[in-house]
Amino acid sequence: MKTIGIIAALPQEIAELLEKMGSQMTQQTIGMRTFYIGEIQGKKCVIVLARIGKVAASATCTTLIQTFGVTEIIFTGLAGAVSQAVNIGDIVIGTEFCQHDMNAEPLFPRHEIPLLGRDVFQSDVALNRQLQRSTEQFLSGESQFSLVRMIAPTAIADFGLKDIKIHHGLIVSGDQFISSDEAVGELQQRFPTALCTEMEGAAIAQICYEYGVSFAVLRVISDKANHSASHDFGRFLNEVAAFVSSGVLLNYLGN
Ligand code: ADE
């Protein structure tokens, strides 16, 4: 039976999943992280909070693979929009990942991971397709209304948030919270096809590539990586992020 590793950035995102694991759940603390081991809807899972940044994500991911033998990894969390086509509230399923802060020039080309000879890593096509279905299921019916209600009324007025779109494409990651027009503009120039930016996805992508493990990253857009990013991020942090991540993941585990 496969074991699914679920990594989240926030405790709120896993609270509902942990409840679903019930009394059979066991815990193990390794490297200052607690791994929750159990089953949800008959699927064997290990759930863990990574904390923030590429080092935290890489360490968590490696433990999931080496100690718990997970056969696939799903990461959920928030991201800042880079593309003009991506709005707050939208969902991004990353198909490609690049570490935007990797720069070993002039020894290696910019963004290339030294001695690995690669700058872009791909997530698992089949897993992305399944996550797309689970997200569509989540967004259809009552739940989308609940989501919009939660951030309404100001979010609707501020951001024109009506239709939540699901995007697929490039995510760029780095150990930086991007929060200025200059910084996001610079990312847009360097990565014309990037949909969003965050601080973990491309690290997980590299580890999963090195170990040959399938993975997927699902991000909810909390901000536009500009001057109001930290304010917008805070607004999404509690209710919305948790609601979307656990909703989509429960659909995924139930399918
Ligand atoms: N996660 C959510 N918003 C972000 C941003 N603006 N920069 C980096 N990571 C993020």
Structural shape = globular
Separation of the first and last Cα atoms:
15 Å
Strand residue content: 25-35%
The set of bound ligands, ions and cofactors reads: adenine
* Overall helicity: 25-40%
Examine the coordinates and then state which fold CATH places here, giving the name of the CATH topology: Rossmann fold
The CATH superfamily is identified as: Nucleoside phosphorylase domain
Describe the largest sheet.
5 strands, mixed, barrel
Q: By helix and strand content, what is the structural category?
A: alpha/beta
Query: Assembly state here?
Result: single chain
Please report the first level of CATH classification, the CATH class. Alpha Beta
The low-pLDDT segments are: none
Strand arrangement across the biggest beta sheet:
5-9-8-6-10
| Rg (C-alpha, Å) | 17 Å
N-to-C series of helices and strands: EHEEEHEEEHHHEHEHEHH
Number of distinct beta strands: 10
Helices, by number, come to 9
Number of domains: 1
Per CATH, the architecture is 3-Layer(aba) Sandwich
Summed over residues and divided by their number, the pLDDT gives a mean of 90
Give the arrangement of secondary structure elements.
Layout: E1 3-8, H1 11-21, E2 26-30, E3 33-40, E4 43-49, H2 54-66, E5 72-81, E6 91-99, E7 121-122, H3 125-139, H4 142-151, H5 154-159, E8 166-173, H6 181-190, E9 194-198, H7 201-211, E10 214-223, H8 229-237, H9 239-254
Parallel strand pairs: 1-4, 1-5, 5-10, 6-8, 8-9
Antiparallel strand pairs: 2-3, 3-4, 5-9, 6-7, 6-10
Helix pairs in contact: 1-9, 2-7, 3-9
The structure holds adenine.
Adenine is lined by residues 78-80, 177-179, 197-199, 222-223, 225, 229, 233.
Domain Nucleoside phosphorylase: 3-242
Keywords: Glycosidase, Hydrolase
InterPro entries: Nucleoside_phosphorylase_d, Nucleoside_phosphorylase_sf
